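Submission sheet (multi-component)
Chains listed below:
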Amino acid sequence: MTKITQDEVHKLAQLSAISLTTDEEATLQAEISNILAYVDQLKELDTEGVEPTYQLSGLTNVFRNDEVDNGIDRETLLSLSAETKDNHIKVPKVL
Amino acid sequence: MTTIAEYTEKSAVENVKRALQKARQNEAYNSLLSLTEDRALKRAEQVDNGEITGALAGIPFVVKDNFLAFGAPTTAASTLLQNFSAPLQATAVEKLELEGAICIGKANLDAFAHGGSTENSAYGPTKNAIDPTKVAGGSSGGSAVVTALDIVPFALGTDTGGSIRQPASFNGVVGYKPTYGMVSRYGVVAMASSTDTMGCFANSAVDAELVMSIMAGQDENDMTSLPDYFEPSTLEKKLKIGVIKELMTEDLDSEVQATVSAAIEELRLAGHDVEEVSLPIVKHTLAMYYIIVPAEISSNMGRFDGVRYGSRSEKAQTLSELYGMTRNDGFMLENKRRILIGSYVLSSGYFDAYYLQAQKARTLLVQAFDELFETYDLLVSPTAPTPAFGFGQHTSDPVQMYLADAMTVSASLAGLPAISLPAGVGSDSKLPIGIQLMAQRKNDSLLLSAAKLFERKDQSS
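Outcome: structure written.
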């Protein structure tokens, strides 16, 4: 049975850019371990030589015409952000 | 149960006012997150003036609140998007509006459509329309309940692994999930891009067909939408129907077993050729689903960063804190659980064993379905392993909650169209129970015409 440690949960949360609390990490450690134990059953299945199916539309390289489209205007898009300044989206310092 | 026909030829303003009034009378169910009253009444006046016409002129409907739609915020039942005012509308919504339909409100769901009971909404669970002590099912629980309560004759939902069919079963309405790609995904909050589909709830298969025929079609804004193929049709021939034996085992709830078996027997008595078929790989599909879908979720949810739109954490001192805190505050535990599982199965060292293995297994599933559909027109199973369950019954055990999707995920992974039709009510529980019919990819016309045929049979009996 696959077990996941709290350290691994912490690392996954970092990879996923989610600042979990320690309590949440503990909860998720137990739950994710159970879920992985469940999905581990797939390892029994013989898939030797089988190609994966990533999508079912059967479509590849769907192109659109290369035409200018005005789309949604700048003011509308900027208005969706929590903080803006001089036509830019403002964020806290990067470093 | 009211159908679309009962709304046509009536004043659109009256239709909309009646729907809004019914919505307010039923607030206790928590099926709606917002009403789009001003916009709806304005559009209704335009219909009554003759400025807006079409096949659904003046018909009120509700959208699941993960469809971008004007008139109220699009929250996806999360706090992260609680004030998000959509700058565009989903293609499916636009198409319905072009035919004169009027959106009156936005339905509750599991936040970001992650869940099977609508208990994961940041705005509280939705109550079952038949028994308010039970869950609505999910994730499109609100849309199922507004349809079952006759607030509107149809409502939109999304179905990634059963999120239309299972709540349709739990609330005794029709729920339709189209072939993957039949309806554009543009303007709908993405969950798992290879299985997300847009469908509807209605009180008859006839209405579901009408709504789907309007929403269907290729869209240049969704590169995975299929070239137009859907045409409504009628069917008089006898069908060859396969009953998937692995989904009719003794593990099933006894009421589901009895009700669905009786519905299947009716199909046989109606002259259809009904046989038991075997789909052994079906026992592995839930495991495939809970690898592939979280993987796609973890990728799709990356866009919610608190920067360009959505609420953001006020406490953050740096950009990386802004991401981490916004996402921790704005996601429900189930969202986080799925994102982390996705990150796990995609990470190096685990990719081959989980993600790649699941996608290979998916090929085996698709092949097994293809083989059956060479012989059978339709495949049949229960829609859900149980009738609606109690609040909190599965919330402490995610694996138990996921098992509620056991009947529906196969069609999702194989891209098949599937419908849940009311099959009856449990003998003791009196709760609705649905039967699921599945057809080959792009055979939506056959599936819906068969559903209409079975419905006619029900009404004449």
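Remark: The longest strand of chain A covers residues 84-85.
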